Amino acid sequence: MNKIRVIDEQVLFDESDDKIEVTLSDKLDIFDIIKLNIKVVQSTDIEIYYESETESKLDVIIEIKEDVICNLYELKKENAVKIQYKYYLEKNAELQVHKFYNCNIVKELDIIELNGESASIVYKFHTISTDTQKYDVLVYHNSSRTRSQIMNKGVNIKNGSLAFNVTGVVYNGIVDCEVDQNNRIITMNENLCNINPNLLIEENDVIANHAALIGKFDEEQIFYLMSRGIPKEEAIRLLTRGFLQDETTYQEEIQEIIDTYWR
User: Fold this and answer.
1) pLDDT in tens, 195-226
2) Contact partners, residue 143, CB within 8 Å, separation at least 6
3) CB atoms within 10 A of CB 21
4) What is the pTM of this model?
5) CA torsion angle for 150, 196, 83, 149 (degrees, to 10)?
């Protein structure tokens, strides 16, 4: 296991092994951006915890080498963040990403490059949006028999406004790929939310699908819980917990975050 903390743009290593290689650059003068490059050379798990009260600007590169299996767990608690992720997967590489955000303003770009044959990614992202958040996810299937499963879930509260733009790309001649998108937003205000799923497929020998939902919790579910003596706020908290549930190492911290909004 590797444990990394990024506190106010300072990168700290709580635990590390020789299965990853980490390169950290100083801030780039023009854009004031820190670049963090993580190369995974053997199968392992990685935890990254982010916390900042000011605006942070980050460029994170994750490289998964051939035949490597990696689980990446992230928890981000920041006021405002501009971040770009680049994921590069080689032949037979497998990456599972579990991310949870408790932030105000977010502008994020995720670029996923499945460069090697039979490379695969499962990407699970969850957020509580209290202000403007926009996420762009681009998945490029650059080799045959690659797999991508992108699942985004957001709960929109207070003055939140949430957008998911997800694009899967398969070029002609790249065969036997699977491209899957599932995006859901539960909104608890009247602000605009958007989901824009895009499948840019040039090859017939591909399985591609997407699902998108923007709405509120089912009133019948809330009524049922209230009929069992559970107050409405508690019912919403329980439904939110269930909606944002994931197999992350940060499960206890995530439940505590949810409890701060629905006491």
Assistant:
1) 999 999 999 999 999 999 999 999 999 999 99
2) 91, 114, 115, 116, 117, 118, 119, 174
3) 12
4) 0.95
5) 10
